[in-house]
Write a structure and sequence with these properties.
about 70 residues; SH3 type barrels; four-stranded antiparallel beta barrel; 4 strands; about 0% helix
């Protein structure tokens, strides 16, 4: 699943995100969602989340439900 729909993402879910500095390279970081930062129900570039450990990025892929 991609991360463009806020309803599919829950705190505790394992996701892959792209951080701001990795947008050009497309390097993905995997982690567990701590907070959902995007308020709108959808976003064309992915829902912005904070992972456990403080990394902020846009969800590109949902790996598993938490």
């Amino acid at each position: 699943m991609d991360g463009k729909n806020r309803a599919q993402i829950r705190p505790g879910a394992r996701v892959r995100v792209v951080q701001k500095q990795d947008q050009r390279s497309g390097n993905l970081t995997e982690g567990i969602v701590q907070d959902i930062l995007t308020k709108s129900p959808t976003h064309p570039h992915g829902i912005k989340v904070r992972l456990q450990g403080g990394i902020v990025g846009r969800v590109k892929e949902i790996v598993g439900e938490g």
